[in-house]
Amino acid sequence: MASRSARDVVLLALTAALAAILFSLTLWLTREPIAAARERAVQARLLELVSSLPRDSELTLERWPIPPRFHTGLGLEKPAFAYRVLENAQVRAVLVPTVSTQGYGGAIRLLVGIKRNGTITGVQIVEQRETPGIGDRILAEKSDWLQIFTGRSRDDPQASRWQVRSAGGAFDAIAGATISSRAVIRQVRHALDYFVDDRQQLLAPAAQPEEAPSP
Questions:
Q1: Alpha-carbon distance 45 to 52, whole Å?
Q2: Do residues 207 and 83 lie in contact, with contact meaning Cβ atoms separated by under 8 Å?
Q3: d(Cα 154, Cα 85) in Å, to the nearest integer?
Q4: Beta-bridge partner residues of 99
Q5: Domain spans of the chain?
Q6: What is the Cα 134 distance to its own chain's centre?
Q7: Inter-residue contact 113 to 120 (CB < 8 Å)
Q8: φ and ψ at 171, to 5 degrees?
């Protein structure tokens, strides 16, 4: 009886060990496909900001370091990165991250798409804690307010008018959410400032892969 119980314990232990090995093997075999799928999903979300760009071939993203001198204006901590949108090694647009600490509920994280000519392709709210039903209408799924930035540039409107309309600016605020609106407007402008000030580097051609020598 005792020997049978011992065999059952050993069998149970071997079964558990085999299950653990199979589970670990499954994780190891699927980690790269899962990571690749996750990366494709992230890239697709980012490329939504430039979906209006006419193109002849596939767009790709290149992570690009933002020099420390721009971190304060953009509200970023280092290391910080923008994304260059490439088509055949040419930079078609840049996705600029920026953070406002002046939202009603705290930090508002944005991503601003900017074409190489300096006009905005779109704005995404990446993270926010604004009041549900009021300030969170800055989200694209809650309203179309973010579309007011599409096609704008650092000179359109002029600097003094990058404000809500009630303060003499060119932009309507979301009703009941002036603080949230003001915070987003200010940071979109800061993203444009960065793009213009670092434009030469941001738009530098991407390195072309070397061709294999002919046999």
A1: 14
A2: no
A3: 20
A4: 109
A5: 1-50, 56-202
A6: 24
A7: yes
A8: -120, 135
Per-residue pLDDT reduced to its tens digit, 161-178: 999 999 999 999 999 999
Cα angle, residue 62 at apex, residues 59 and 63 outer, rounded to 5°: 145
Tell me the per-residue pLDDT of 1-30, one tens digit each, with 9 for 90 and over.
556 676 767 777 778 777 777 677 666 676
Query: pTM, whole model, 2 decimals?
Result: 0.78
Phi and psi of 173, rounded to 5°?
Answer: -95, 155
Tell how far CA 65 is from the center of its chain. 14
192 in Cβ contact with 154 (< 8 Å): yes
- What does the alpha-carbon distance between residue 54 and residue 191 come to, in Å, rounded to a whole number? 23
Which two three-digit tokens encode residue 156? 């359109």
- Rounded to 10 degrees, the C-alpha dihedral 201/205/206/209 comes to -150
Q: In whole numbers, what is the pLDDT of the chain averaged over residues?
A: 86
For residue range 100-152, what is the model confidence (pLDDT) as tens digits?
999 999 999 999 999 999 999 999 999 999 999 999 999 999 999 999 999 99
In 3D space, the residue among 42, 75, 101, 48 whose CA is nearest the CA of residue 194 turns out to be 75
Give the residue from 212, 167, 200, 202 showing the smallest Cα distance to 186.
Answer: 167
DSSP the chain: -HHHHHHHHHHHHHHHHHHHHHHHHHHHHHHHHHHHHHHHHHHHHHHGGGTT---SS--EEEEEEPPGGGHHHHT-PSS-EEEEEEETTEEEEEEEEEEES-SSSS-EEEEEEEETTS-EEEEEEEE--PPTTTGGGGSTTT-SGGGGGTT-BTTBS-GGG-SBGGGT-SBPPPTT-HHHHHHHHHHHHHHHHHHHHTHHHHTSPPPPPPPPPP-
